[in-house]
Each structure stands twice: as structure tokens, then as C-alpha cells.
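Progress against Task 2.4 (sequence-to-structure conversion) is shown through the following example record, which the project officer requested during the mid-term review.
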Amino acid sequence: MRHSADFINLSSTAGTVARMLNQTDLARDLTLASSALTLSALLIARRWLPEIIAQPVQSFLPWLLAPTLLLAAVALATGSRVGLATVVLPIAAWAVLFVPQLVAAPDGVHSVDEFRVATQNLGTGGPAPELADVAVVAVQELTDRNRRAVTTTLDPDHPYAATVGTVGLWSRYPLTDIQRLDLGQGWARALRARMHTPTATVTVYTVHLGSVRFGDTDSRNRTLRTLSDLVHQDPADRLLVLGDLNTASTDPHLATLTDTLQDARSGFGFTWPSPFPLTRPDHILTRGFTTHAATVLPPTAGDHRATTATLTPQPPQDRR
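C-alpha cells generated for the chain above:
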């Protein structure tokens, strides 16, 4: 009888352990599956998220690959079939969104009428020294503290310049029709000029859109709409928008510009923050140009890196 009781106790213990293991596996699978579905929702349905959640998610969207790969590693290490099956969803969503950007590249072909353009938010620092070799340079957050550094770097090789408030444009080509633009910010953070290269006349916008705060994108959204209206109404065949738009490349709000303009970049092209860039609020948007190369320059003392593009004017098109 004693042996029988011991056997019953062992069986009972084994059953309890099995149930605990099953419960542990179930909890693991539920955790992995719910995490994978959450990541999928952030990647796929971000347009419909509340603004307070959508703005940071959209700004740093490519980085959702990191937790996705972590989930895949945990599912693989623990042998969770449910986890492995569900983590395929965010991996596929990420690939659809970003692999085309990573494999697409400027054509790399050079032409005799190409020129380089750049934009940099200076912040508390000066311009990247490499900008001295760029034909057209737009800067934002131009102040009395950094103006001397800017003029020292750019004036020798850029005889034409225009400044309005805290934005500026330096060019190797003549600038005419310089205008201050009112984007509704209360102070000057945008200008428009006509630039005359040897082979084309180009309308150039240099802008610094309204700032974004956590949960507050009203200023950015308002100034972005105003800029978009100006650009859409502009009849120029060749047009550039250079500046800090406070809008990531992955933010759907940028489509109000990129539905008619091309984003001149290669890969993700992150520019902020300068020491370790995580997102790209700084943009070179074009109409009537072919992009041959695009780069992000090394960090400076400021909080944004400069971004550059090599462009060639396209033949004029009928915009009626």
C-alpha cells in the first residue's frame, strides 16, 4: 500500500508540474503573440493612432525592427511556434515599408550641369566644414552666436546670400526675387528666392517649420499646410525645398509635400540627433530634378547633421 501511495503522489506531482509547464508555455505564447500583434499594428495602422502616440511612433518607425528581432530571438530560443508564427507579421510589415527605401539608390550618374545642395539646422554649433564645397547651402537657426562661423565657412565660395530672420541661403549662383514667407509662426523662419544656374532657373524655399512637442504638433501641422499650399501653387518647373521640416520621412504628414515633390535621400538618411541620428526631420525635396547622390555629413557641435544631394535639372514639363 505504501508503494501505491508513493506512486500516486509521484503521479500527482508530475501532473502538477505538467500543468504548470503548460500554463507557463501558454503565458509565454500569449506574451509573444500580443507583442508581435502590437508591433504589427504600430507599423500598419499608425495613421489612425491618436496624435500623442502617432507622432513619436512615426518619427522613429524604422527602429521598431529592434524589438521585432528581439521577439523573434526569444521565440526561437524558447521554441514557441506561436511566437515564431506571429512575429512574421511585423517582420513582413517592416520589410514592405522599408526594404524598397534601402535597396533604392540615386543613379550615381554624373552630368555636366549637376550641382550639390545641402541643408543644416545649426543649433548651437556652426556649419559642417564640408559645406564649403557645396554649391547651394540652406541653414536654419541662424543667430548672432553662429553667424560668424557661417560666414567664415560659406562666404569665400558663395558670393550670393540671402537671410531672413533665422534662416539663410548661400549660393554660388545669383539669387533674385528674395522674399520673406509668412508661415504663421510670428517670426521669420522661411524665405523663397529665384536662383540662376548656368543651365536652369530654380525656385528655392529655405524653411524651418513649427516645432513638435510631445503630444503637440499643431504648430508643425499648421506651418506644413501653409508651405504645402505655397509649393502647390508655385508654377516653377524646377523647385527645391530645403530645411528642417520637423517631420520625419516616415511621418504621413510629409505626404502633403511628397505627393508632388521627390525626396532626395539615400536609405534612411537620419540627421537628428547629431551624435547618433535616429530620425530625419531635415529634408531636400525637389521638383524637376534627377538625384544622382545623397549623403549625410559627419556630426558637428550642433544637434542636427547636414544632409546633401547632387542634382541635375530635368527638361521643363507642361504643368497644366
